[in-house]
Design brief:
Strand order of the largest sheet: 1-2-3-4-5-6-7-8-9-10
Oligomer: single chain
Largest sheet: 10 strands, antiparallel, barrel
Distance between the termini: 94 Å
Radius of gyration: 28 Å
Order of helices and strands: HHEEEEEEEEEE
Number of strands: 10
Structural class: alpha+beta
Helix content: 10-25%
Length: about 200
């Protein structure tokens, strides 16, 4: 009989130990659920991030003549930039045409919005090359757009950063910069300051 009591006591203690060990895990379930909820929170829809730029602009372009060479020689250009809405705002097309002492530049940029990643890709081509370069990819946060890619420049692998900032209804600023040290330092080589000359943002 004593042996049977001892066996029952042992089983009861084992069950209590199991239950006590399991109890601390219970509060973790809501935390995990919260983490999953945060992870699945709907991202901000950025398909209208470039709506501010639809229209015709006067463009002042300053360009570093020889990037990543230590050069400090900049050249200026003046011209226009026309931005047209495509696919009901989920894409847009930029046509740039400027002239300066260093010559004539005609460029085209097709910007495409990815509704799954909530990011844009910027795809640039110039008449001098006739092909579309690697896309820079990114998004807008707090009124500032940053876009990046990795490509080859003068035989070396570099990072490229495009930034849209100082955005108002009548003006905006665009910068391109290169980095050859993995993004530790950046050298700006292209600065475009745009001023709206015709409000055709409804087109």
């Amino acid at each position: 009989m004593n042996s049977l009591c001892r066996m029952r006591t042992y089983l009861v203690l084992c069950m209590l130990g199991y239950l006590l060990h399991s109890v601390p895990m219970l509060p973790q379930a809501p935390a995990a659920s919260g983490a999953r909820a945060r992870h699945t929170t709907t991202k901000r829809d950025g398909q209208h991030d470039f709506d501010f730029e639809i229209g015709t602009w006067k463009t002042h372009l300053t360009r570093l003549q020889h990037p990543l060479t230590g050069s400090t020689t900049w050249v200026d250009y003046e011209g226009t930039s026309v931005v047209r809405r495509v696919w009901n705002g989920r894409a847009n097309l930029v046509e740039l045409e400027v002239d300066g002492p260093a010559g004539h530049i005609e460029g085209l940029s097709l910007r495409l919005y990815n509704p799954e990643s909530h990011q844009w890709s910027l795809n640039f081509a110039s008449t001098s090359g006739g092909t579309v370069g690697l896309p820079t990819i990114g998004e807008f946060k707090n009124g500032r757009g940053e876009f990046f890619d990795q490509e080859s420049f003068n035989g070396r692998s570099i990072l490229v950063r495009n930034v849209f900032s100082e955005i108002t209804p009548m003006s905006c600023r665009f910068e391109q910069a290169f980095s050859e040290d993995g993004g530790k330092t950046w050298e700006v080589n292209w600065i475009a300051t745009d001023t709206r000359v015709k409000d055709d943002s409804g087109n």
